[in-house]
Amino acid sequence: MQKTRVLFVCEHNSARSRMAEAFLNALAGDRHMVESAGFDIAPVNPLAAKVMAELGMDITAKESQKVFDLYKSGRIYEFVITVCDESLAEQCPVFPGIVRRCHWSFPDPWNLEGSEEEQLEKTRAIRDQIKGAVEEWLANPEQCCTLKPGE
């Protein structure tokens, strides 16, 4: 059985796309080949790493990747799912082949305000929303939809 190739993209490949990649690998890595990338890469967000570690998932194990490097290398995906703001989603390159493009908008953990505990709580909420979106997508991947947190 050939695995479905899925790419998650966010601004820095430091939080949201890595969380989505980790959840899809954990829930259905046997059926999907999953990668994540960003437009302008940055180190892994420490809040995202911490809240994923709470679930036993390490999102720090690999280097951040640039989405345009994957594009230039000729990678082909069945699904390219952006998990960033609308404006950045529109900048994502169009990969060759038959690709379904999806957009799920989630807040960027780098932009959270408040005390460290408040930021952790908000990052947990983002993590849980991303997990829910991945689960919903897995239930019906052909129904590639735009998800808004909390709906």
Automatic annotation (TrEMBL):
The keyword Aminoacyl-tRNA synthetase does not apply. Residues 4-140 form the Phosphotyrosine protein phosphatase I domain. One of its GO terms (biological process) is response to arsenic-containing substance. Transmembrane segments: none annotated. Keywords: Arsenical resistance. SUPFAM superfamilies: Phosphotyrosine protein phosphatases I (SSF52788). Pfam families: LMWPc. PANTHER family: ARSENATE REDUCTASE. This is Arsenate reductase. It comes from Desulfatibacillum alkenivorans DSM 16219. The lineage of its organism: Bacteria, Pseudomonadati, Thermodesulfobacteriota, Desulfobacteria, Desulfobacterales.
